[in-house]
Amino acid sequence: MPYNIACVPLLPQNALSANQAPAEWSATSSTPSRVCGVESHIYQLASKLSDRGHKVIIITHQYDTRSGVRYLTNGLKVYYVPFFVIYRESTMPTVFSFFPIFRQIVIRERIQIVHGHASLSSMCHEAILHGRTMGLRTCFTDHSLFGFADAASILTNKLLKFTLSDVDHVICVSHTCKENTVLRASLDPASVSVIPNAVVAENFQPDPSKASKDYITIVVISRLFYNKGTDLLVAAIPRICEIHPTVHFLIAGSGPKAIDLQQMIEKHMLQDRVEMVGPIRHEEVRDVMVRGHIYLHPSLTEAFGTVLVEAASCGLYVVCTEVGGIPEVLPSWMTVFARPEEDDVVDATCRAIAELRRGNVKTEKFHKRVQQMYSWTNVAMRTERVYDGICCGEQASLMDRLKRYYGCGVWAGKLFVICAVVDYLLWWVLEFWYPRCNIDVARDWPAKEIKEVKDGSGIRVGKKRSE
Amino acid sequence: MPELFMPTPIAPQPKHRPSPPPITTTELTWSTPASPAELPAAVPQSTNTTTLQLPEVRHGARRTSPTNIAVDETGARRRKGRSNPKQNPKKRAQWKKLLWVKQDYPDNWVDPTFLKDLQRNINVHPYDFYSLVAESTVVVQHLASAVIFVTSFVAIYIEVVSPVSVVAVSTMLTVAGWAVWDMGWEKREAAKERAVTHKDGGYDRAVSNNNNGGASSGGSVSPSKGLGLEFKRSHHQAHSSGSYFPPFEGGGTPASAPVSPSKSSRSPDDDPPEAPHQDQSEQLRKTRVIATAKSALLIYFTLLGLSPILRSLTKGVTEDSIWAIATWLFIANFLSFDYGSGIERNFPASFSTNAAITSSVVLASRLTDTSHVFSLMLFSIQVFGLFPVFRRTLKHMSWNLHVLLTVVLVLGAAGGLMFVVGWGWAVAWVLGVLVGMGGCGWWMIDLQKYKNEIHGPWDPARPVIRRQWA
């Protein structure tokens, strides 16, 4: 059964422009560190779901002058809702102001499922709350890991608990992320699915001819922030260069720690061995990657690490720190793991260099294997399975919902109940004030003809949607 | 069959799963989510149930929908496999915490290994009741000295005590305190130096490491720090040649003598003078006394000159506003006071001191005579500016004297209260202090049971970097 799905993500600026795939990506975007990679995920997932016969619309807030409705390729429709942006593309966390326009969109597009992304976006939380009030099915995808100690995490976790106490299903990108989310929002682990990200393997074709034959190039593509482990990089590069005179580095990305790298290069006079190419666009990632032999990823926390998969797909041997969800992502014959310690990063890189020199690593096989491991079609199919699951259960009554909210905490529970009740009343006011029958239903994008989508675990036939 | 490209090291899994507790709906009911405190206990339990119970059983539970996700093309096969796991254990490979393997498990599968890397309260150390009570004496001392100050003010205000006599007594005590403080000067400096040397040594090590590390190192590093070091060293040289005067020092007393070369100035190579330099240390002592007396006189006359201005500064403000402002400032003083630091800090908690002095400035405007204002201000500087330094020193010198001082202060405050408002208040104060000391300690220990630190693989790693290059 095809569904009408509304994705509610927080997208960085210029992430989705008309007729164009996500233009900017983590290496360049200026958004807070944790929401990166999300936009590419949404775009790919949405287009694959469209291919499978569902209708997907994306609701996000306006960027600068871009507001209103836009179409992307595949008939993907994006609603840029006008909002007051306070800081760095974050909207004012008003709980109810989004409801009227959200209700209009939902009724116009005949939405059945609301799918929120990224726990830092207040809009996503609001959409899930309103969606539940209107009796829609809701789903939430968590892309990030949070601690439990600092004040910001505690607040975010409380908000997450509020939203997720009444969500139908949660999707996490890795098993570690699932453990984290279950603890953060006190969820039943059975209501959390693990569906990893994927890569478009065709966009990450290896090209051994681009890489140097004379020396080994180690590629680093990451935003240069503290939590991406740039300090480790700064400490490790001079030592690796000292041990291996024929190793070169290629660093792409920008961030506050770029200056540290620059100083390190000057101090150790490594200008001819460490190249910093600055911020690059997502399309250029592959071109940078294929120039190298080893991909080094010294991150300190990572829920999934899509860039590792991309690097492996480009035929790079991956050296990464063993943190967060990273150990789950790639098989051990494609990676060398290191503890997040300077010495161990150096050791692991040296081990990788030695393995490569000995020719023990079959990097030419990486691309094909990665293609088999991760595909968006597979992700879309598994997501669809989640949709199937949440759509066949019975709807919870208002009292049940209130009971769930009430259980969230001594004070928070009561506050959440008040929010839910006000939201419910607001819905009735809106129904009375702007009746459903006065809202036009938007015409669907002409759906593709019957199409067969094949995947490893079965064949599913997409149906023609709009009849 | 799962696609295993290569064997990966996997944590061993228990062969025999524990038999599940009888499932009840409340265990999985959404309306009562586990509170953070009981979560880790609750989660493994539901883990068991979800592992072993069939979807039919879980239908009674609230969240039925998620389990139905397994219902798809392969759902029937899965359920069959799950219903009699002992019959065909080889048909289904063990679940692995990996994403790149296509596994024959539903996406929402909860394995018995779920949350096995969870660590709770690994950084928590238990408190000892008596040490907590002992440490609370620092707070009690501060509270008692403030009570003494306030009762003295009230006594002056209602004109039962002459402010001049109050300040005379307190000045005598201050001078005595200074004498005690000055006695332990050498020893304290040595102790401080030990702490500082430790710190400096660490820095030096870092720098030298650094120098070894790279050819042109240090160039960008040392200037800032090095300059500071040079500057302070020259100070120290001035010091030993006898022409050293400490900068501005407070009220004929301990307050600030150690501003000087003490803190981060001495590096390990310039050692303090030893026994042979007896005459030199005597000379130093003399210099110190002169400098202290000089700054005491400076403060004295400044205060004397300012007194008329201070008296009329807030004269126009009504009485109840003054009481309110003074109360809030005293509360700010209590809250921001630096109870924890040892002798290594010369001027702890400047905000706290400022709040108390400001409070006495507004109180002083209620007094009638300029000399009264002067006395009160001097008294407040002694109580809030210098006395804390003395208390800190005394605690460092001798624990018994510290306890004795606490008792004296509490009883002194009780005496003040009895004199000003009545003996009932005095008794209440003493009882309050005793109950507070014991009760807060007990409360603190009791609250520890709510401690719930959660650590796991999702925490951002702390990078271990051996060599600080910048």
Automatic annotation (TrEMBL), chain A:
Pathway participation: Glycolipid biosynthesis; glycosylphosphatidylinositol-anchor biosynthesis
Gene Ontology cellular-component annotations: glycosylphosphatidylinositol-N-acetylglucosaminyltransferase (GPI-GnT) complex
Domain PIGA GPI anchor biosynthesis: 61-150
Transmembrane segments: 405-430
EC top class, as a word: transferase
InterPro entries registered for this protein in UniProt: Glyco_trans_1, PIG-A/GPI3, PIGA_GPI_anchor_biosynthesis
Keywords noted in UniProt: Glycosyltransferase, GPI-anchor biosynthesis, Membrane, Transferase, Transmembrane, Transmembrane helix
Top-rank taxon, per record: Eukaryota
Gene Ontology BP, a term: GPI anchor biosynthetic process
Gene Ontology terms for molecular function: phosphatidylinositol N-acetylglucosaminyltransferase activity
The keyword Transmembrane helix belongs to this UniProt entry's keyword annotation: yes
Glycosyl transferase family domain segment(s): 207-348
EC number in record: 2.4.1.198
Function: Catalytic subunit in the complex catalyzing the transfer of N-acetylglucosamine from UDP-N-acetylglucosamine to phosphatidylinositol, the first step of GPI biosynthesis.
The name this protein goes by in its record: Phosphatidylinositol N-acetylglucosaminyltransferase GPI3 subunit
Automatic annotation (TrEMBL), chain B:
Recorded family membership: Belongs to the PIGC family.
Composition-biased stretches (Basic and acidic residues): 266-284
Any one GO biological process: GPI anchor biosynthetic process
Keyword Lipid biosynthesis (UniProt): no
Pathway(s) this gene product operates in, as recorded in its UniProt entry: Glycolipid biosynthesis; glycosylphosphatidylinositol-anchor biosynthesis
Transmembrane segments: 289-310, 322-340, 373-390, 402-420, 426-445
UniProt-annotated location(s): Membrane
Stretches the record annotates as Disordered: 1-93, 196-222, 238-284
Cellular component, GO, one term: glycosylphosphatidylinositol-N-acetylglucosaminyltransferase (GPI-GnT) complex
Protein name stated in the entry: Phosphatidylinositol:UDP-GlcNAc transferase PIG-C
Chain intervals with Low complexity compositional bias: 208-222, 254-265
Chief subcellular location: membrane
Biased segments, Polar residues type: 24-34, 44-53
